[in-house]
């Protein structure tokens, strides 16, 4: 009888240790996802701060492009007000599209393209866009690890018991990015 109780106690102890290990791994992955989102948020804040400088520098040269400025300003406001990953993805996609259109319009203003302030801010924004892309990739990798962990056996049982939910990927849909570029000579 005592041998049976010892075996049951050992099995229960191992089971408890197993559950604690999985739970701690889930917490670690969830925190990594949250950290990765924070990194995106930092870069998006930097982007949002640079855009007014770019627009203000361009306004003096581009007096007839009011609609372009308004589109960027509205898209920036929506992006800054996004609360969820899905809202941020949609808003940042619209902001990226507005910035792309803005840069196309800039091509028609040679004096603006030669302005040192504009070039400096444009370079900063380009670097920030690269950092956003890297942070987005890192975030999506962490979401993949986390979602795999909460969906795979046996950790899915523990995840269900402690209400660990699936996280959304940060995906930006810009129609221009999906189109095949046209090359003509």
Would you give an account of this structure?
79% of the residues lie in helices and 0% in strands. The chain has 185 residues and is mainly α. It has a domain of 97 residues.
Could you give a quick summary of the protein structure above?
This protein has 185 residues and is mainly alpha-helical. The chain has helices at residues 2-59, 66-80, 85-106, 110-114, 116-151, 155-161, 175-178. It has a domain at 35-131.
The count of helical stretches stands at 7
What percent strand?
Answer: under 5%
- Terminal-residue CA separation: 89 Å
What is the CA-atom radius of gyration, in angstroms? 24 Å
Shape, please? Answer: rod-shaped
Poorly predicted runs: 180-185
Please write out the topology:
Elements: H1 2-59, H2 66-80, H3 85-106, H4 110-114, H5 116-151, H6 155-161, H7 175-178
Could you name the key traits of this structure?
185 residues, mainly alpha, 7 helices, disordered C terminus
């Amino acid at each position: 009888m005592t041998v049976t109780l010892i075996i049951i106690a050992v099995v229960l102890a191992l089971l408890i240790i197993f559950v604690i290990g999985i739970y701690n791994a889930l917490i670690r992955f969830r925190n990594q996802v949250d950290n990765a989102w924070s990194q995106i948020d930092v870069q998006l804040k930097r982007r949002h701060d640079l855009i007014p400088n770019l627009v203000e520098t361009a306004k003096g040269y581009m007096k007839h492009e009011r609609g372009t400025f308004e589109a960027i300003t509205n898209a920036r406001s929506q992006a800054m007000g996004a609360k969820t990953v899905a809202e941020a993805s949609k808003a940042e996609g619209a902001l990226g599209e507005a910035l792309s259109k803005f840069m196309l319009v800039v091509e028609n203003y040679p004096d603006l393209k030669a302005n040192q302030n504009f070039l400096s801010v444009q370079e900063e924004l380009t670097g920030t866009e690269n950092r956003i892309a890297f942070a987005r990739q890192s975030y999506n990798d962490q979401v993949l690890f986390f979602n795999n962990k909460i969906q795979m056996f046996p950790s899915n049982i523990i995840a269900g018991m402690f209400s660990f939910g699936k996280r959304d990927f940060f995906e930006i849909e810009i129609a221009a990015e999906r189109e095949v570029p046209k090359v003509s000579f």
